[in-house]
Amino acid sequence: MPEPVWWQRGIVYQIYPRSFMDSNGDGIGDLPGIRQRLDYLTWLGVDAIWISPVYPSPMADFGYDISNYVDIHPVFGTLEEFDRLLAEAHQRGLKLILDFVPNHTSDQHPWFLESRSSRTNPRRDWYIWADPRPGGGPPNNWLSDFGGTAWEFDERSGQYYYHAFLREQPDLNWRNPAVCQAMHDVLRFWLRRGVDGFRVDVIWYLIKDDQLRDNPPNPAYSEGEPPHHAVLPLHTADRPEIHAVVAGLRRVIDEFTDRVLIGEIYLPIERLVSYYGADLSGAHLPFNFQLIQTQWNARAIAALIDSYEAALPPGGWPNWVLGNHDKSRIATRIGAAQARAAAMLLLTVRGTPTMYYGDEIGMTDVPIPRHLLQDPFERNVPGIGCGRDPERTPMQWDASPGAGFTTGRPWLPFAPDWQETNVATQAGLSGSILTLCRRLIALRRAEPALAVGSYSPVHSEGDVLAYIREGSGRRFLVALNLASRPAQLTMPAGATARMLLTTYLDREGEIAPSLLPLRPDEGVILDLSQ
Ligand code: GLC
User: Is residue 172 situated within a structural domain?
Assistant: First the structure.
Protein backbone atom coordinates (compact mmCIF):
# COMPACT_ATOMS: atom_id res chain seq x y z
CA MET A 1 0.00 0.00 0.00
CA PRO A 2 1.34 3.48 -0.79
CA GLU A 3 2.17 5.73 2.16
CA PRO A 4 -1.18 7.05 3.49
CA VAL A 5 -1.89 10.72 2.80
CA TRP A 6 -3.22 13.29 5.25
CA TRP A 7 -6.90 12.77 4.50
CA GLN A 8 -6.47 9.04 5.07
CA ARG A 9 -4.50 9.31 8.31
CA GLY A 10 -6.20 12.40 9.66
CA ILE A 11 -9.38 13.43 11.42
CA VAL A 12 -11.75 15.97 9.87
CA TYR A 13 -13.61 18.36 12.19
CA GLN A 14 -16.70 20.13 10.84
CA ILE A 15 -17.24 23.74 11.86
CA TYR A 16 -20.63 25.33 11.35
CA PRO A 17 -19.22 28.86 11.20
CA ARG A 18 -22.29 30.74 12.44
CA SER A 19 -22.02 28.78 15.66
CA PHE A 20 -18.33 28.25 16.38
CA MET A 21 -16.94 31.53 17.70
CA ASP A 22 -18.17 35.11 17.44
CA SER A 23 -15.32 37.63 17.52
CA ASN A 24 -17.35 40.85 17.18
CA GLY A 25 -20.35 40.45 19.44
CA ASP A 26 -23.04 40.27 16.74
CA GLY A 27 -24.13 36.86 18.02
CA ILE A 28 -22.96 35.08 14.84
CA GLY A 29 -19.72 33.16 14.55
CA ASP A 30 -17.11 34.39 12.07
CA LEU A 31 -13.70 33.71 10.54
CA PRO A 32 -11.63 35.68 13.08
CA GLY A 33 -13.52 33.68 15.71
CA ILE A 34 -12.41 30.40 14.16
CA ARG A 35 -8.87 31.77 14.07
CA GLN A 36 -9.03 32.51 17.79
CA ARG A 37 -9.96 28.90 18.42
CA LEU A 38 -7.32 27.22 16.27
CA ASP A 39 -5.26 26.44 19.34
CA TYR A 40 -8.20 24.52 20.75
CA LEU A 41 -8.35 22.42 17.59
CA THR A 42 -4.66 21.57 17.72
CA TRP A 43 -5.01 20.82 21.45
CA LEU A 44 -7.88 18.48 20.61
CA GLY A 45 -5.64 16.92 17.98
CA VAL A 46 -7.70 17.03 14.77
CA ASP A 47 -5.94 17.33 11.42
CA ALA A 48 -8.35 19.23 9.19
CA ILE A 49 -11.29 21.58 9.52
CA TRP A 50 -14.19 21.68 7.10
CA ILE A 51 -16.08 24.96 7.26
CA SER A 52 -19.71 25.12 6.09
CA PRO A 53 -20.30 27.94 3.54
CA VAL A 54 -18.94 31.42 4.34
CA TYR A 55 -19.62 33.05 0.94
CA PRO A 56 -21.89 36.02 0.23
CA SER A 57 -25.45 34.80 0.56
CA PRO A 58 -28.92 36.16 1.29
CA MET A 59 -28.96 33.39 3.95
CA ALA A 60 -32.27 31.90 2.86
CA ASP A 61 -30.61 28.53 3.67
CA PHE A 62 -27.85 29.89 5.93
CA GLY A 63 -25.14 30.11 3.33
CA TYR A 64 -26.16 27.15 1.15
CA ASP A 65 -27.69 29.77 -1.16
CA ILE A 66 -24.62 31.48 -2.59
CA SER A 67 -24.75 34.77 -4.46
CA ASN A 68 -20.99 35.00 -5.09
CA TYR A 69 -18.71 31.95 -5.04
CA VAL A 70 -15.47 33.90 -4.85
CA ASP A 71 -15.83 36.17 -1.85
CA ILE A 72 -16.64 36.06 1.86
CA HIS A 73 -19.91 37.20 3.43
CA PRO A 74 -19.31 40.31 5.57
CA VAL A 75 -20.95 38.61 8.55
CA PHE A 76 -18.06 36.12 8.50
CA GLY A 77 -15.29 38.55 7.51
CA THR A 78 -13.36 39.36 4.35
CA LEU A 79 -11.11 37.59 1.88
CA GLU A 80 -8.13 38.99 3.81
CA GLU A 81 -9.50 37.47 7.02
CA PHE A 82 -9.92 34.21 5.16
CA ASP A 83 -6.31 34.26 3.98
CA ARG A 84 -5.17 34.95 7.50
CA LEU A 85 -7.22 32.06 8.87
CA LEU A 86 -5.81 29.76 6.21
CA ALA A 87 -2.23 30.85 6.89
CA GLU A 88 -2.59 30.45 10.64
CA ALA A 89 -4.23 27.05 10.24
CA HIS A 90 -1.39 25.93 7.99
CA GLN A 91 1.20 27.25 10.44
CA ARG A 92 -0.28 24.85 12.97
CA GLY A 93 -0.31 21.95 10.53
CA LEU A 94 -4.10 22.08 10.18
CA LYS A 95 -5.69 21.58 6.76
CA LEU A 96 -8.68 23.66 5.70
CA ILE A 97 -11.52 22.28 3.61
CA LEU A 98 -14.20 24.54 2.13
CA ASP A 99 -17.82 23.75 1.37
CA PHE A 100 -18.56 23.85 -2.36
CA VAL A 101 -22.23 24.17 -3.33
CA PRO A 102 -22.46 23.42 -7.05
CA ASN A 103 -26.02 22.13 -7.33
CA HIS A 104 -27.69 25.49 -6.95
CA THR A 105 -26.96 29.17 -6.50
CA SER A 106 -28.94 31.83 -4.71
CA ASP A 107 -31.76 33.35 -6.77
CA GLN A 108 -29.81 36.59 -6.19
CA HIS A 109 -26.67 35.30 -7.93
CA PRO A 110 -25.96 37.51 -10.98
CA TRP A 111 -26.02 34.38 -13.15
CA PHE A 112 -29.59 33.66 -12.13
CA LEU A 113 -30.68 37.28 -12.40
CA GLU A 114 -29.45 37.21 -16.00
CA SER A 115 -30.91 33.78 -16.69
CA ARG A 116 -34.27 34.92 -15.41
CA SER A 117 -34.24 38.19 -17.35
CA SER A 118 -35.45 36.67 -20.64
CA ARG A 119 -35.76 33.42 -22.58
CA THR A 120 -33.07 34.59 -24.95
CA ASN A 121 -30.49 35.64 -22.37
CA PRO A 122 -27.17 33.82 -22.98
CA ARG A 123 -27.32 32.49 -19.41
CA ARG A 124 -30.89 31.19 -19.79
CA ASP A 125 -29.58 27.64 -20.16
CA TRP A 126 -27.37 27.91 -17.06
CA TYR A 127 -30.41 26.89 -15.02
CA ILE A 128 -33.20 24.38 -15.61
CA TRP A 129 -36.16 26.05 -17.27
CA ALA A 130 -39.24 24.31 -18.64
CA ASP A 131 -42.64 25.18 -20.05
CA PRO A 132 -45.78 24.56 -18.04
CA ARG A 133 -47.33 21.17 -18.69
CA PRO A 134 -50.12 21.20 -21.29
CA GLY A 135 -53.11 22.83 -19.65
CA GLY A 136 -50.87 24.61 -17.14
CA GLY A 137 -49.07 23.81 -13.90
CA PRO A 138 -45.54 22.59 -13.12
CA PRO A 139 -43.77 20.56 -15.85
CA ASN A 140 -43.75 17.33 -13.81
CA ASN A 141 -44.19 15.89 -10.30
CA TRP A 142 -40.71 16.62 -8.97
CA LEU A 143 -40.77 17.72 -5.34
CA SER A 144 -38.54 20.07 -3.41
CA ASP A 145 -36.65 18.57 -0.45
CA PHE A 146 -37.88 21.53 1.55
CA GLY A 147 -41.59 21.00 0.75
CA GLY A 148 -43.95 21.48 -2.18
CA THR A 149 -43.29 21.35 -5.90
CA ALA A 150 -39.71 21.81 -7.06
CA TRP A 151 -40.84 24.18 -9.83
CA GLU A 152 -41.27 27.91 -9.47
CA PHE A 153 -43.21 29.85 -12.10
CA ASP A 154 -41.58 32.95 -13.52
CA GLU A 155 -44.41 35.26 -14.65
CA ARG A 156 -42.25 37.38 -16.86
CA SER A 157 -40.89 34.66 -19.11
CA GLY A 158 -43.79 32.23 -18.72
CA GLN A 159 -41.60 29.27 -17.73
CA TYR A 160 -40.82 27.35 -14.58
CA TYR A 161 -37.38 26.88 -13.05
CA TYR A 162 -36.34 23.85 -11.03
CA HIS A 163 -35.15 24.05 -7.41
CA ALA A 164 -34.34 20.89 -5.46
CA PHE A 165 -34.38 22.97 -2.25
CA LEU A 166 -35.87 26.44 -1.64
CA ARG A 167 -37.28 28.55 -4.45
CA GLU A 168 -34.42 30.90 -3.51
CA GLN A 169 -32.00 28.11 -4.57
CA PRO A 170 -32.42 27.55 -8.33
CA ASP A 171 -30.55 24.47 -9.63
CA LEU A 172 -27.71 25.02 -12.06
CA ASN A 173 -27.75 23.12 -15.35
CA TRP A 174 -24.67 20.88 -15.19
CA ARG A 175 -25.41 19.61 -18.71
CA ASN A 176 -24.22 23.00 -19.94
CA PRO A 177 -20.41 22.98 -20.49
CA ALA A 178 -20.24 26.70 -19.68
CA VAL A 179 -21.60 25.97 -16.20
CA CYS A 180 -18.99 23.24 -15.65
CA GLN A 181 -16.29 25.60 -16.81
CA ALA A 182 -17.40 28.45 -14.54
CA MET A 183 -17.70 26.17 -11.53
CA HIS A 184 -14.33 24.56 -12.18
CA ASP A 185 -12.88 28.05 -12.14
CA VAL A 186 -14.47 28.63 -8.74
CA LEU A 187 -12.61 25.57 -7.44
CA ARG A 188 -9.36 26.86 -8.93
CA PHE A 189 -9.87 30.26 -7.32
CA TRP A 190 -9.83 28.69 -3.84
CA LEU A 191 -7.27 26.00 -4.62
CA ARG A 192 -4.85 28.71 -5.76
CA ARG A 193 -5.47 30.52 -2.49
CA GLY A 194 -4.27 27.35 -0.80
CA VAL A 195 -7.35 25.52 0.47
CA ASP A 196 -6.78 21.83 0.99
CA GLY A 197 -9.98 20.56 -0.56
CA PHE A 198 -13.74 20.67 -0.70
CA ARG A 199 -16.77 19.03 0.75
CA VAL A 200 -19.20 19.08 -2.15
CA ASP A 201 -22.82 19.75 -1.25
CA VAL A 202 -25.42 17.24 -2.54
CA ILE A 203 -23.00 15.94 -5.15
CA TRP A 204 -25.37 13.15 -6.19
CA TYR A 205 -28.05 15.69 -7.18
CA LEU A 206 -26.09 17.55 -9.86
CA ILE A 207 -27.61 15.88 -12.94
CA LYS A 208 -31.34 15.40 -13.48
CA ASP A 209 -33.19 13.55 -16.21
CA ASP A 210 -32.98 15.55 -19.44
CA GLN A 211 -36.47 14.39 -20.45
CA LEU A 212 -37.91 15.61 -17.15
CA ARG A 213 -39.78 12.34 -16.60
CA ASP A 214 -42.06 12.07 -13.56
CA ASN A 215 -40.61 10.42 -10.48
CA PRO A 216 -42.42 7.22 -9.47
CA PRO A 217 -44.54 7.21 -6.31
CA ASN A 218 -42.89 5.76 -3.21
CA PRO A 219 -45.00 2.79 -2.12
CA ALA A 220 -43.37 2.83 1.34
CA TYR A 221 -44.24 6.47 2.04
CA SER A 222 -46.09 7.08 5.26
CA GLU A 223 -47.59 10.12 6.97
CA GLY A 224 -45.14 11.99 9.14
CA GLU A 225 -42.25 11.63 6.73
CA PRO A 226 -40.98 14.72 4.92
CA PRO A 227 -43.39 15.28 1.99
CA HIS A 228 -40.72 14.89 -0.70
CA HIS A 229 -40.37 11.23 0.29
CA ALA A 230 -43.75 10.67 -1.40
CA VAL A 231 -41.91 10.09 -4.68
CA LEU A 232 -38.69 8.17 -5.35
CA PRO A 233 -35.95 10.46 -6.72
CA LEU A 234 -35.31 8.18 -9.70
CA HIS A 235 -35.02 11.02 -12.20
CA THR A 236 -33.69 13.78 -9.97
CA ALA A 237 -30.65 12.24 -8.26
CA ASP A 238 -27.93 9.63 -8.73
CA ARG A 239 -28.31 9.67 -12.52
CA PRO A 240 -25.78 7.64 -14.53
CA GLU A 241 -24.32 10.82 -16.07
CA ILE A 242 -23.31 12.14 -12.63
CA HIS A 243 -20.04 10.21 -12.61
CA ALA A 244 -18.63 12.16 -15.54
CA VAL A 245 -19.42 15.39 -13.68
CA VAL A 246 -17.73 14.19 -10.49
CA ALA A 247 -14.70 13.04 -12.49
CA GLY A 248 -14.56 16.55 -13.97
CA LEU A 249 -14.41 18.06 -10.48
CA ARG A 250 -11.76 15.54 -9.51
CA ARG A 251 -9.59 16.47 -12.48
CA VAL A 252 -9.57 20.06 -11.25
CA ILE A 253 -8.59 18.91 -7.75
CA ASP A 254 -5.79 16.86 -9.29
CA GLU A 255 -4.35 19.91 -11.03
CA PHE A 256 -3.08 20.75 -7.52
CA THR A 257 -1.07 18.59 -5.14
CA ASP A 258 -2.36 16.92 -2.03
CA ARG A 259 -5.96 18.19 -2.12
CA VAL A 260 -9.09 16.24 -1.22
CA LEU A 261 -12.54 15.89 -2.76
CA ILE A 262 -15.29 14.85 -0.36
CA GLY A 263 -18.86 14.33 -1.53
CA GLU A 264 -22.07 14.66 0.45
CA ILE A 265 -24.10 11.59 -0.54
CA TYR A 266 -27.09 10.01 1.17
CA LEU A 267 -27.44 6.70 -0.67
CA PRO A 268 -27.39 3.01 0.25
CA ILE A 269 -23.88 1.53 0.43
CA GLU A 270 -23.90 -0.15 -2.99
CA ARG A 271 -24.81 3.15 -4.69
CA LEU A 272 -22.62 5.25 -2.41
CA VAL A 273 -19.42 3.44 -3.35
CA SER A 274 -19.99 4.15 -7.05
CA TYR A 275 -18.95 7.74 -6.22
CA TYR A 276 -15.33 6.64 -5.85
CA GLY A 277 -15.66 6.53 -9.62
CA ALA A 278 -14.29 4.11 -12.20
CA ASP A 279 -10.61 3.52 -11.35
CA LEU A 280 -11.02 5.91 -8.43
CA SER A 281 -11.65 8.85 -10.76
CA GLY A 282 -14.38 10.27 -8.49
CA ALA A 283 -14.50 11.59 -4.94
CA HIS A 284 -11.66 10.62 -2.61
CA LEU A 285 -14.19 10.32 0.19
CA PRO A 286 -17.87 9.85 -0.62
CA PHE A 287 -19.23 10.68 2.83
CA ASN A 288 -20.47 7.57 4.60
CA PHE A 289 -23.49 8.56 6.72
CA GLN A 290 -24.53 5.00 7.53
CA LEU A 291 -23.87 5.41 11.27
CA ILE A 292 -26.42 8.22 11.28
CA GLN A 293 -29.01 6.04 9.60
CA THR A 294 -28.43 2.55 11.00
CA GLN A 295 -30.07 1.29 14.19
CA TRP A 296 -27.70 1.63 17.10
CA ASN A 297 -27.05 -1.96 18.12
CA ALA A 298 -24.09 -4.31 17.85
CA ARG A 299 -25.64 -6.64 15.24
CA ALA A 300 -26.69 -3.86 12.89
CA ILE A 301 -23.42 -1.98 13.15
CA ALA A 302 -21.25 -5.09 12.75
CA ALA A 303 -23.24 -5.96 9.61
CA LEU A 304 -22.94 -2.40 8.38
CA ILE A 305 -19.15 -2.31 8.76
CA ASP A 306 -18.87 -5.68 7.01
CA SER A 307 -20.98 -4.66 4.07
CA TYR A 308 -19.23 -1.31 3.72
CA GLU A 309 -15.78 -2.91 3.84
CA ALA A 310 -16.90 -5.50 1.29
CA ALA A 311 -18.38 -2.89 -1.06
CA LEU A 312 -15.35 -0.57 -1.18
CA PRO A 313 -13.62 -0.59 -4.56
CA PRO A 314 -9.94 -1.66 -4.62
CA GLY A 315 -7.93 1.23 -3.20
CA GLY A 316 -11.08 3.12 -2.13
CA TRP A 317 -10.51 4.68 1.27
CA PRO A 318 -13.31 4.32 3.87
CA ASN A 319 -14.71 7.12 6.01
CA TRP A 320 -17.27 7.49 8.79
CA VAL A 321 -19.49 10.33 10.01
CA LEU A 322 -21.52 10.44 13.24
CA GLY A 323 -23.20 13.79 12.85
CA ASN A 324 -23.46 17.02 10.91
CA HIS A 325 -25.41 20.27 10.65
CA ASP A 326 -28.41 18.51 9.06
CA LYS A 327 -28.95 15.67 11.52
CA SER A 328 -29.91 15.26 15.14
CA ARG A 329 -26.78 15.12 17.33
CA ILE A 330 -25.34 11.76 18.30
CA ALA A 331 -25.75 12.40 22.06
CA THR A 332 -29.45 13.04 21.47
CA ARG A 333 -29.90 10.08 19.15
CA ILE A 334 -28.30 7.47 21.41
CA GLY A 335 -27.85 9.18 24.79
CA ALA A 336 -24.85 10.57 26.65
CA ALA A 337 -23.47 7.21 27.81
CA GLN A 338 -23.55 5.61 24.34
CA ALA A 339 -22.13 8.77 22.78
CA ARG A 340 -18.85 7.89 24.47
CA ALA A 341 -18.84 4.42 22.91
CA ALA A 342 -19.73 6.07 19.60
CA ALA A 343 -16.70 8.35 19.88
CA MET A 344 -14.51 5.31 20.46
CA LEU A 345 -16.06 3.59 17.43
CA LEU A 346 -15.64 6.63 15.17
CA LEU A 347 -12.01 7.09 16.19
CA THR A 348 -10.95 3.43 15.95
CA VAL A 349 -12.91 1.95 13.05
CA ARG A 350 -11.04 1.84 9.73
CA GLY A 351 -11.53 5.03 7.74
CA THR A 352 -11.26 8.79 7.98
CA PRO A 353 -13.46 10.08 10.81
CA THR A 354 -15.42 13.33 10.52
CA MET A 355 -16.36 14.86 13.86
CA TYR A 356 -19.08 17.48 14.21
CA TYR A 357 -18.24 20.48 16.39
CA GLY A 358 -19.61 20.16 19.91
CA ASP A 359 -20.01 16.40 19.79
CA GLU A 360 -16.67 16.15 21.59
CA ILE A 361 -18.27 17.80 24.63
CA GLY A 362 -21.47 15.80 24.28
CA MET A 363 -23.67 18.66 23.09
CA THR A 364 -27.28 17.65 22.53
CA ASP A 365 -30.03 19.01 20.29
CA VAL A 366 -31.45 22.19 21.77
CA PRO A 367 -35.22 22.59 21.50
CA ILE A 368 -35.87 25.94 19.81
CA PRO A 369 -38.94 27.95 20.82
CA ARG A 370 -41.13 28.89 17.88
CA HIS A 371 -40.28 32.59 18.00
CA LEU A 372 -36.55 31.82 17.66
CA LEU A 373 -36.88 29.41 14.72
CA GLN A 374 -34.34 29.98 11.97
CA ASP A 375 -34.27 26.98 9.65
CA PRO A 376 -36.40 27.34 6.50
CA PHE A 377 -36.93 23.56 6.39
CA GLU A 378 -38.84 23.76 9.70
CA ARG A 379 -40.82 26.78 8.50
CA ASN A 380 -41.86 25.03 5.27
CA VAL A 381 -42.48 21.61 6.77
CA PRO A 382 -43.42 22.36 10.39
CA GLY A 383 -43.99 20.02 13.26
CA ILE A 384 -42.52 16.70 12.09
CA GLY A 385 -38.96 17.21 13.23
CA CYS A 386 -37.40 18.46 9.98
CA GLY A 387 -35.87 21.54 11.61
CA ARG A 388 -32.09 21.63 11.87
CA ASP A 389 -31.68 24.49 14.34
CA PRO A 390 -31.40 22.12 17.33
CA GLU A 391 -28.06 20.70 16.12
CA ARG A 392 -26.72 24.10 15.03
CA THR A 393 -26.64 25.93 18.36
CA PRO A 394 -23.49 27.80 19.38
CA MET A 395 -20.43 25.99 20.65
CA GLN A 396 -20.24 26.05 24.43
CA TRP A 397 -16.74 27.19 25.37
CA ASP A 398 -17.14 28.12 29.01
CA ALA A 399 -19.66 28.79 31.78
CA SER A 400 -19.88 32.55 31.24
CA PRO A 401 -23.19 34.15 30.16
CA GLY A 402 -22.22 34.12 26.47
CA ALA A 403 -20.74 30.62 26.84
CA GLY A 404 -17.43 32.05 25.60
CA PHE A 405 -19.08 32.12 22.16
CA THR A 406 -20.30 35.70 22.08
CA THR A 407 -20.46 38.91 24.06
CA GLY A 408 -23.78 39.62 22.36
CA ARG A 409 -27.02 37.76 21.88
CA PRO A 410 -26.44 34.39 20.19
CA TRP A 411 -28.33 33.77 16.92
CA LEU A 412 -29.64 30.52 18.41
CA PRO A 413 -29.98 29.83 22.14
CA PHE A 414 -27.44 27.81 24.14
CA ALA A 415 -28.35 24.45 25.58
CA PRO A 416 -29.77 24.83 29.10
CA ASP A 417 -26.83 22.77 30.44
CA TRP A 418 -24.09 24.96 28.96
CA GLN A 419 -22.63 25.75 32.37
CA GLU A 420 -21.54 22.12 32.75
CA THR A 421 -21.36 21.06 29.12
CA ASN A 422 -18.56 23.29 27.91
CA VAL A 423 -14.94 23.06 26.89
CA ALA A 424 -13.41 24.88 29.88
CA THR A 425 -15.23 22.80 32.47
CA GLN A 426 -14.68 19.49 30.71
CA ALA A 427 -11.03 20.12 29.93
CA GLY A 428 -10.44 20.12 33.68
CA LEU A 429 -12.33 16.89 34.34
CA SER A 430 -10.42 13.64 33.97
CA GLY A 431 -13.61 11.68 33.29
CA SER A 432 -15.28 13.97 30.75
CA ILE A 433 -16.22 13.05 27.19
CA LEU A 434 -13.87 15.80 26.03
CA THR A 435 -10.99 14.14 27.88
CA LEU A 436 -12.03 10.82 26.34
CA CYS A 437 -12.11 12.27 22.80
CA ARG A 438 -8.77 13.93 23.26
CA ARG A 439 -7.20 10.73 24.59
CA LEU A 440 -8.72 8.70 21.76
CA ILE A 441 -7.33 11.14 19.22
CA ALA A 442 -3.90 11.12 20.87
CA LEU A 443 -3.84 7.32 20.90
CA ARG A 444 -4.89 7.20 17.26
CA ARG A 445 -2.11 9.62 16.34
CA ALA A 446 0.46 7.66 18.33
CA GLU A 447 -0.58 4.27 16.94
CA PRO A 448 -0.80 4.18 13.13
CA ALA A 449 -2.47 0.76 13.37
CA LEU A 450 -5.58 2.49 14.74
CA ALA A 451 -5.65 5.02 11.92
CA VAL A 452 -4.48 3.17 8.84
CA GLY A 453 -4.05 -0.44 9.95
CA SER A 454 -6.12 -3.36 8.77
CA TYR A 455 -9.56 -4.09 10.16
CA SER A 456 -10.91 -7.49 11.06
CA PRO A 457 -14.16 -8.23 12.84
CA VAL A 458 -14.11 -10.36 15.99
CA HIS A 459 -16.98 -12.72 16.59
CA SER A 460 -18.90 -11.55 19.63
CA GLU A 461 -22.21 -12.23 21.33
CA GLY A 462 -25.13 -10.04 22.25
CA ASP A 463 -24.54 -6.35 22.57
CA VAL A 464 -20.79 -6.32 21.95
CA LEU A 465 -19.18 -5.01 18.80
CA ALA A 466 -15.54 -6.08 18.60
CA TYR A 467 -12.78 -5.79 16.03
CA ILE A 468 -9.03 -5.84 15.62
CA ARG A 469 -6.87 -3.11 14.12
CA GLU A 470 -3.42 -4.19 13.11
CA GLY A 471 -0.39 -2.68 11.45
CA SER A 472 3.17 -1.43 11.98
CA GLY A 473 3.80 -4.43 14.24
CA ARG A 474 1.00 -3.46 16.61
CA ARG A 475 -2.34 -5.11 17.26
CA PHE A 476 -5.35 -3.70 19.07
CA LEU A 477 -8.70 -5.12 20.07
CA VAL A 478 -11.61 -2.71 20.36
CA ALA A 479 -14.69 -3.95 22.20
CA LEU A 480 -17.78 -1.80 22.52
CA ASN A 481 -20.81 -2.62 24.62
CA LEU A 482 -23.52 -0.91 22.59
CA ALA A 483 -26.22 -1.38 25.20
CA SER A 484 -26.86 -0.11 28.70
CA ARG A 485 -26.61 -3.46 30.46
CA PRO A 486 -23.50 -5.44 31.39
CA ALA A 487 -21.95 -7.66 28.73
CA GLN A 488 -18.86 -9.79 28.24
CA LEU A 489 -16.41 -10.71 25.57
CA THR A 490 -14.42 -13.91 25.19
CA MET A 491 -10.86 -12.84 24.52
CA PRO A 492 -8.98 -14.33 21.57
CA ALA A 493 -7.21 -17.51 22.72
CA GLY A 494 -3.66 -17.10 23.90
CA ALA A 495 -3.69 -13.32 23.83
CA THR A 496 -2.37 -11.19 26.64
CA ALA A 497 -4.43 -8.07 26.46
CA ARG A 498 -3.61 -4.92 28.33
CA MET A 499 -6.24 -2.21 28.76
CA LEU A 500 -5.12 0.94 27.01
CA LEU A 501 -8.19 3.12 27.22
CA THR A 502 -11.75 2.67 28.36
CA THR A 503 -14.71 4.99 27.86
CA TYR A 504 -14.96 5.13 31.67
CA LEU A 505 -11.37 6.37 31.66
CA ASP A 506 -10.25 3.84 34.26
CA ARG A 507 -8.86 0.24 34.42
CA GLU A 508 -5.90 1.30 32.32
CA GLY A 509 -2.93 -1.04 32.43
CA GLU A 510 -4.99 -3.96 33.76
CA ILE A 511 -4.57 -7.32 32.05
CA ALA A 512 -7.89 -8.52 30.66
CA PRO A 513 -9.23 -11.88 31.90
CA SER A 514 -10.17 -14.48 29.27
CA LEU A 515 -13.80 -13.54 29.76
CA LEU A 516 -13.76 -9.78 29.77
CA PRO A 517 -16.68 -8.14 31.57
CA LEU A 518 -17.90 -4.89 30.05
CA ARG A 519 -19.93 -2.43 32.02
CA PRO A 520 -23.08 -0.85 30.55
CA ASP A 521 -22.16 1.32 27.53
CA GLU A 522 -18.47 0.60 28.01
CA GLY A 523 -15.93 0.62 25.25
CA VAL A 524 -12.35 -0.58 25.67
CA ILE A 525 -9.21 -0.58 23.61
CA LEU A 526 -6.83 -3.44 24.43
CA ASP A 527 -3.26 -3.80 23.36
CA LEU A 528 -2.64 -7.32 22.02
CA SER A 529 0.85 -6.53 20.78
CA GLN A 530 2.93 -8.11 23.56
C1 GLC B 1 -26.99 19.97 1.91
C2 GLC B 1 -26.58 20.78 3.11
C3 GLC B 1 -27.82 21.36 3.74
C4 GLC B 1 -28.46 22.28 2.72
C5 GLC B 1 -28.75 21.55 1.43
C6 GLC B 1 -29.06 22.49 0.33
O7 GLC B 1 -27.74 18.86 2.24
O8 GLC B 1 -25.85 19.99 4.00
O9 GLC B 1 -27.53 22.05 4.92
O10 GLC B 1 -29.64 22.81 3.24
O11 GLC B 1 -27.65 20.79 0.99
O12 GLC B 1 -27.89 23.18 -0.05
Answer: no
pLDDT band at 1 (very low <50, low <70, confident <90, very high): low
Q: What is the pLDDT of residues 16-73, one digit of tens each?
A: 999 999 999 999 999 999 999 999 999 999 999 999 999 999 999 999 999 999 999 9
Quote the ligand 1 centre to 69 CA distance (angstroms). 16
Q: What is the pTM of this model?
A: 0.98
Residue 201 is among the residues annotated as catalytic for this protein: yes
Pocket test for ligand 1, best of 61, 145, 168 (most atoms within 8 A of CB): 61
Please indicate, yes or no, whether residues 348 and 385 belong to a single structural domain of this protein: yes
**What's the CA gap between 169 and 354, in Å, rounded?**
27
Ligand 1 neighbour 171 (Cβ under 6 A): no
Decide: 378 in ligand 1 pocket, CB within 6 A.
no
Asked whether residue 359 falls in the same domain as residue 490, the answer is no
Per annotation, catalytic residue among 255, 270, 279, 306: 255
Q: Which phi and psi angles does 95 have, rounded to 5°?
A: -85, 155
Alpha helices per DSSP H over 163-289? 177-193, 242-254, 269-272
- Domain housing 474: 454-527
| 383 plus 412 within the same structural domain | yes
Distance CA 322, CA 356 (A): 8
